[in-house]
Amino acid sequence: MKKSAQKARIRTFIIANWKMNPATHVDAKKLATKSKSLGKGLKKTTLVACPPFPFLSDVVAPHTKGYAYGAQDVSLHASGSHTGDVAASQIVSLKASYVIVGHSERRAKGESDVEVATKVRVALSVGLTPIVCVGERERDDEARYLLTLREQIHASLEGVSPRDFGKIIIAYEPVWAIGGDTANTPDDTVETILFIRKTLMELTSEKTALSIPMLYGGSVDDTNAAGFLAKDEINGLLIGRASRDPKKLARIIEASEKRNSQIKKTKIR
Ligand code: 13P
Asked: H/E element holding 144?
């Protein structure tokens, strides 16, 4: 095999975004217990539980390769009087490793690309891995959405040092696919992920851009997860509804463990 065609192995990320669920602490504790046990002994997968802030301490568990946890958002500010905010250092103090940044549901509430970029930098500054969400609102036949996506990526990662790009995860979540019953197709997702990688190469080295885990999110469940995970270019999934159903989550993790996950030098147009 030529050197340039060598493949780098990477774990598959299954990120469980609980969003504003479940309704009670009792239910959150049950879901946390199930999630922790699903994360036990995983060989190729890292399950990351991301509950709402009040339930973050429930998902705390010793670090293993198979299980980790994180938050769904982080304050723009490192400290100070910011009622209702949660600082990156507070998230880290629970030994969390990840934080979702720039989810479309926060962007819809007015979060700007500038704020997303600040949050990414704040997260990186304390050693949290930001899971940076990007995605178009709608598709158009002329593929103008790709230009929008490119602008969003540049703006959402503004000021991140090229070296730090190796510490982020990108989640491609087309807004139109979130919370409905139609996911993007795996083939279309691969196309867009290649475009996102190409865009990342404008911001960091080719080697670093190729090392960034690229996830897909939007109406993933136990019936379609394997289709995405059959694609080498998709390094994991960011899951909303199905991640709160332990049986569905178990089937998704099973599909992830069965895959042979690799990042390879894919053709970038
Ligand atoms: P659903 O899986 O419920 O469509 O949500 C996707 C999502 O927004 C994950 O962040």
From this structure: helix 144-156
Q: Which CATH superfamily is domain 3-268 in?
A: Aldolase class I (3.20.20.70)
Q: Which two tokens stand for residue 108?
A: 């819809």
Ligand 1 mutation pick, 239, 241, 243, 249, max ligand atoms within 8 A of CB: 239
Q: What's the pLDDT score for residue 114?
A: 98
Give the CA angle between residues 106, 109, 115 to the nearest 5°. Answer: 60
| Range list of β-strands (E), the chain | 8-9, 12-17, 45-50, 67-71, 98-101, 129-134, 169-172, 214-217, 236-239, 262-263
Q: How far is CA 119 from CA 94, 98, 203, 238, in A?
A: 18, 12, 18, 19
pTM: 0.94
The reported pLDDT for the residue numbered 129 is 98
